[in-house]
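Narrative of accomplishments. A recurring question from our advisory board has been how the design workflow behaves on a single, concrete structure rather than in aggregate. To address it, we present the structure tokens for one chain from the evaluation set, followed by the sequence designed for it. No filtering or post-editing was applied between the two.
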């Protein structure tokens, strides 16, 4: 069965946050009820698109995989269904997190990037829970611990912070410049390749 869409958006080859940035812009041009097909090759785009839709009130219809291309389908909601996107209010820089860890402060670093991103470059001791698995794996986190959430650029981690805050986690901070702002020590999963 072919899925009809009113617009096709090509985000192939783009990494987070670009598929979401482009989807937001394209969504603004659509009429309520119209459907957009977002084509992406970034595996993380699935969780990003689902989270963004949930956050804004637009309807995530589903995704299809064709080869290495993910096709995400979204329906534009009417203005009464749309929620204003809110950013998580508690943020810190990668530099601030680095100072806390260097000082030996008790902190859980939660890395919500995809497993491949985590494998190649991560903060030592960071816990890997990709954004798409967060709701099903929340039990792995202690609600009372300070949790510092990081991704590549601060977008997925912002979404993760909002999900955790909604579920009653009180001490959650988004590392808003993400791993792209991290200059401290990192570790890798692989030996010389």
């Amino acid at each position: 069965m072919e899925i009809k869409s009113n617009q096709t958006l090509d985000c192939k080859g783009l990494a987070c946050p670009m598929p979401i940035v482009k989807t937001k812009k394209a969504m603004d041009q659509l009429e309520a009820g119209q459907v957009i097909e977002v084509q992406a090759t970034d595996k993380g785009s699935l969780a990003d698109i689902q989270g963004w839709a949930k956050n804004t009130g637009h309807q995530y219809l589903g995704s299809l995989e064709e080869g290495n291309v993910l096709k995400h389908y979204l329906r534009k909601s009417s203005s009464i269904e749309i929620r204003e996107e809110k950013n998580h209010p508690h943020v810190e820089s990668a530099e601030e997190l680095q100072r806390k860890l260097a000082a030996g402060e008790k902190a859980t670093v939660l890395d919500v990037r995809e497993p491949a991103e985590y494998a190649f470059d991560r903060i030592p001791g960071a816990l890997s829970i990709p954004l798409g698995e967060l709701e099903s794996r929340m039990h792995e986190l202690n609600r009372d611990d300070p949790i510092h959430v990081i991704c590549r650029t601060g977008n997925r981690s912002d979404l993760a912070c909002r999900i955790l805050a909604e579920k009653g986690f009180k001490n959650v901070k988004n590392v808003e410049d993400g791993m792209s702002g991290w200059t401290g020590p990192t570790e890798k999963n692989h030996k010389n390749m």
